[in-house]
Structure prediction request, 1134 residues.
Amino acid sequence: MTSAPLGYLATDGAAASPVTALAWGLIGVSLAVILIVGLLVVWASLRRRGAPSQKETDDNLVGRPASGLAWIYGGLAISVPVLLISTVWSLVVLAQVMKPSASPGLTIEVNAHQWWWEARYDSPDPWRIFTTANEIHIPVGVPVRIKLASSDVIHSFWAPKLAGKMDVIPGLANATWIEANHPGRYRGQCGEYCGLQHARMAFYVVAESPAAFAAWRAHELEPPDAHPSPVAARGAEVFAARCAACHTIRGAEGGGLVGPDLSHLAERETLAGAMIPNDRSHLDAWIRDPQGVKPGALMPAVRLTQADRGGLVAYLESLK
Amino acid sequence: MKSSGRAPFLALSVFAALLAACHKTPAPNQGLAVPSGHVQGWTGATANFAPNGPAGEWPSQARDYANTRYSPLTQITPANVARLRTAWSFSDGAQYGHEGAPIVVGDTMYLVTPFPNIAYALDLTKPGAPIKWSFSPNPSPIAIGKACCDAVLRGWAVADGKLIYNLLDDHTVAVDIKTGKQVWRTKMDNPENGTTMTMAATVFGDKVYVGNSGGELGTRGWLAALDVATGKELWRAYGSGPDTDVKIGPDFKPYYDWMKGKDLGAASWPSDMWKHGGASSWGWVSFDPQLNLIYYGTSNPSPRVPAQRPGLNLWTAAMFARDATTGMAKWAFQFTPHDQWDYDGVNENILIDIPFQGRMHKALVQFNRNGFAYTIDRQTGQVLVAQPFGNLNWATGVDMKTGQPIVNPAMQPKPGIKLVNACPTDLGVKDWQPAAFSPRTGLLYAPTLNVCMDLTDHVQSYIAGTPYDGMEMTRHPGPGGNWGAFIAWDPVHGRKVWSIPENFMLFSGALATASDLVFYGTVDGWFRAVDARTGKVLWSQKLGSGIISQPITYTGPDGRQYVAVYSGVGGATSVESKQAGFPAHGNTLYVFSIDGAGPGAAAGMLATVTAAGKAGG
Amino acid sequence: MRARDLRVGLATAALFALAACGQPAGRRAAPAAVGMTANRLPVGDLAGDVQSPALLSVQNPFAGQPDAIAQGKVLFVKMNCAGCHGYDLAGNMGPNLADRYWRYGGTPGAVYQSIARGRPQGMPSWGRALPPADIWRLVAYIQSYGGMTPAAQYQAGEQGDLAGAPPSAPGEAKGVGTGQAAGKSRMQSDAAQSAAP
Prediction:
């Protein structure tokens, strides 16, 4: 799986597997057709035909139907059922992937921005509603409804191993659904050109066991560590003064909604629209010079002293 | 039109007869037992006028604990009210909107200006009511930029020899009424995070109750009780958050099941949004001395974009009944769950007793922002009557089983999409401007608004000290084209009795007197006296600026009855400022009497100082 | 992109360097600005700094650029400016930004300073929360409403000579803003702002 993270010919989920099966089925049918027809063409072109005998020619003046009709009947007899079956199969697959078989156990509102993904986890209990970004956790085996909205231009929500593309259109409320059969990190990518960094607008769907998902979800609601180290405490102040107008960290000072929610940032494996690994050097480089990492990104280069940036990085790393 | 041309005529007359029957004046109170000393008007509603002070005083913003704004004075009557003239006036130099009512205790009138909150004591015994002393508290100007609706002050209190009031910059101050010197000053909150204080500090017994403003800036609302003598904070009840913060304990018994539960002030919000949830207490506080309960309301939820905060958003747009001593909540009622239009619940709760379903109920009436006038049992929190008192289209009614409004789904705003002609606008059908009650008619007299809005919501970040708002609105008058209307309301049956439409909004309080007069002022500066029974306008006087304060009446040391009101437009009325005729700012107190008579009113008198230091002449 | 970064940096640096200099204008007795008298004790500029015309004649590197104006508009809403100054810039809790009256000066440099440093009576200081380029974009958005003082006319603006003129760009500037937003009358804004003793 990791060798082809966006490979859609090997999918894993009830929203995608029927389509993949159909795809392979049709490929099989197509290959069979090509093989059979190709063989026939080759045989026809290589078959030796002698000149017709006088008797046969005389007989043929009467107008007997050509013996080729049998081939037509035979071909129809094979292809019509196959095509009918393919049609029915396609329609069944369409119905299967249009909506989940069971009612969704989870609804996530995904809001696409240039060039990152915001995900709000809905719940009938309002206090369990929270927002995260770029790494969307889901429980295994549970159909998850994804409501799609865009803050700016048209994007497309595409997690190839889990579902097909669904466009995210500003002003329109679209929805799709995904379901993962096995735990794992499934990569997603924006599937509709949306500006300079369209190619770097990825996300991850992290499927985990229901117990692990519940634990993750409960953890997301918890505030950050109340006793950070002195360096991290300095970083918290830097964050409040320099970053909080655009970013939110639940439980800390900061309610900005311009950029991604950074609550529990240290739990994520990637940064910057799931493009770079979440480790100290990449985080430092991203803060120091976002344009160097992702030219055109809307995150500005905030001028920080070395010490301030070090504190900020330490603080963000402490957000487990 | 074939057979009988008579059939439609018959039908019409039957219909007309039915209509007439419906609109028959209601029977007077059915002879139910009335507590002695109470006067009952024809709706049967009455009130307790404790503390029952001297008839000629106006000792607090609402004159009494029940917030009736009713005066027993009768010198000025419908027969002579047309002779009211200015006896004297007083300009206090502050240019923001003037919303508070003067207080008259003994021979002195106490006034406090809007920012910079300078206090004045005027000597009513002398001609022209000269200034006895003034006190400048010098509040911080930072607060001006954090006040959503002008740098106003909605009132002040006199008790225990002190004038007590809130400063815009989140202090409460007490000034000795004899000397004009500060006795104590208590810091209550921090204006840098968007919190200000504009409400009238209110005293009951030995406590002064104060609350904050800032529902448009993501503040966390609270109501606190301070000790009148020292200013020390005794308790503080927040408007959102866990039960311990909201002072909800085992005695808390809301009438409706949907308000029962643990920590609903946090659980009805996403993650931790209750920390900047609004629910500030910037309105009025009333008090029932027999039940020892105070009644007050909370503001809208923050941000003002409902899509950002799914859930009921308790305890915003609601009211509390709290034990006046301990602050623990007895019951609560949320008028507008998950408010989507900025319908605060802070309007005054007028405590009246009404006949309802066969017995007298201790009740209260709130003319809510959302356009419904609620008559609520003040012991249990049950809604007895809930009827619209103005134009609204956001809901189709109130479900009497749950007390919840039946919201019109088409009127729910979604971010980025313009919602056209939502009524009422955020200011509501009535805002903070208080109504009055007359026991002689049993009616309430309310200054109302007829304003609608086109609304577009914008998702808002929380940045401390900046608006946490998101409502982009243009406002226009509702059906009829009048921006305001002054109404008389029957709280027992939930119906309007008469209505005076006004071109401009009404943002002044109402005053009712025992001679069946009701006073109110308009935003374009007309001060009117009307007949309490019929709504006929008996006297109008144009003042220097628009009137958004509260009229009072008192007896001067010379035994005359005076009516006083501030003129000085501002506050939230700027939404109408583009209308032709909208007045300029002002800061003058007008005091009226019959023929303008007052102490030493002879023209050209020279006040001389005798050897004893007293002015004579 | 590079050239524009350079201009932003230079403009901002000029603004802060000149602010830091703080030389009394009397020392610059060879005035470059028109109409400047050689007062030994000049009044401070409208925002209370030392009067330094060069300081406040800095140009906005983004002035008139449509995408900067559009980004400024987005910032104006997202940073909650619209909540105080109105979605049409006509003023509400904060002053009218579409008219000719500028309490702390209406040149691009003055408005930049107002945003970056904050002002008395509650205007927050954004200089640490927003990078200079974003503040210039906000200034460009406000400029598109036509009420600001052109940098070259700083002196006239300070001396009240421009107050009578209507906003210079009535109607739309590149489809953004309304220019002639009627809000509180200027007298009311004045009154509200000058009440503090």
